[in-house]
Specification:
The chain is of the alpha/beta class.
Length: about 325
């Protein structure tokens, strides 16, 4: 199959590219490189540098790639930026999605998989939320992800595409961008590896469901390419992708600290690290959010394989090997 991955030079997208290529598919990437990097892509993967907000540019990429399947990962991904700049968030996450869906419909793509977000869609939840939980987004980012699913449903019905929305919990892992406001695991790893204190927003008692990036990539490959009885033309299938296990930011910092200490000791470096600092709370942050991924197991045969401690260890090792980036 020919597969186009938007945002494929980014953190999650590049792991999806790896998984698709390992499964024998031909992959091309559309990315504006605003947060992704060519270095994340295997040699020989065609990269089309374009902005999904530009419909003509998106149309040109589809004309060149002629995909059978589309994996849409490109997005504005910062909750706090969406609060400050809701128009920008909507332009990327809604208009950009529409541009991709219109081109997918024009080229009669068989299936479109969309990066949605259970981490913001359900709002404040104190136990793992199944897909039947009513949507209650409280940030513009969450609102645009919910609207995005509605557009997928419309395009599926109108154009006969099969569409899948994967509602990620908080994704972390190697290649995550540590710059800016997104990716607390990446930010903490970089800080602690540099011997600097991690900065915890507010009291740190914000519970999240952390899922490893390569596990998320595996879910995307299955959602794109597997023969799934319930994923048929004209329908939208929404699935949570997470672990159902919560950890607050204070616990997360402690676990990352342990992983970084182990890395520094293995490399013969000083393992004494400063205590975390506390700053003000971020606007739009939920106190608690976890997802129930039981249905992804039933539909995709997917379950997370990497526990948080092991994933953090692998992530710290990766950032130690890329400390200058």
């Amino acid at each position: 199959m020919n597969v186009l991955v938007t945002g494929g030079a980014g953190f999650i997208g590049s792991h999806i590219v790896d998984g698709l290529m390992a499964a024998g598919h031909r992959v091309e990437v559309l990315d504006d490189l605003s947060s992704g990097s060519r270095e994340n892509l295997p040699a020989g993967v065609p990269l089309h540098v374009a902005d999904i907000v530009d419909p003509a540019a998106v149309a040109r990429v589809f004309e060149a790639a002629r995909p059978d399947l589309v994996c849409h990962q490109a997005a504005q991904m910062s909750v706090s930026r969406s609060v400050r700049e809701p128009r920008f968030d909507a332009e990327v996450n809604c208009i950009g999605l529409i541009n991709v869906l219109e081109s997918a419909a024009r080229h009669r793509c068989r299936r479109v998989v969309f990066a949605s977000s259970g981490g913001v869609l359900y709002g404040e939840v104190t136990s793992p939320a199944p897909e039947t939980t009513p949507a209650n987004p409280v940030s513009p980012y969450g609102i645009t992800k919910w609207v995005g699913e509605r557009y997928l449903q419309f395009f599926a019905a109108e154009h006969g595409m099969a569409t899948v929305a994967l509602r990620y919990s908080n994704v972390y892992g190697p290649r995550q961008n540590p710059h800016g406001e997104a990716g607390v695991v990446a930010i903490f790893c970089k800080k602690l590896l540099a011997g600097e204190p991690a900065r915890i927003n507010g009291d740190g008692r914000y519970v999240r469901d952390y899922v490893f990036g390569p596990d998320v990539a595996r879910a995307n490959v299955l959602a794109l390419t597997a023969d799934l009885p319930g994923v048929v033309p004209g329908t939208l299938t929404s699935l949570n992708i997470g672990t159902g296990i919560g950890a607050d930011v204070n616990d997360l910092e402690s676990m990352i600290r342990s992983a970084v200490v182990a890395v520094r000791l293995r490399h013969g470096r000083n393992a004494t690290l400063p205590l975390p600092e506390h700053g003000s709370a971020r606007p739009g942050d939920l106190r608690s959010n976890q997802v129930d991924a039981t249905r992804a197991g039933e539909v995709l045969g997917w379950r997370p394989r990497v526990a948080l401690a092991e994933g953090l260890s692998q992530t710290a090792e990766w950032f130690a090997a890329h400390e200058r980036s």
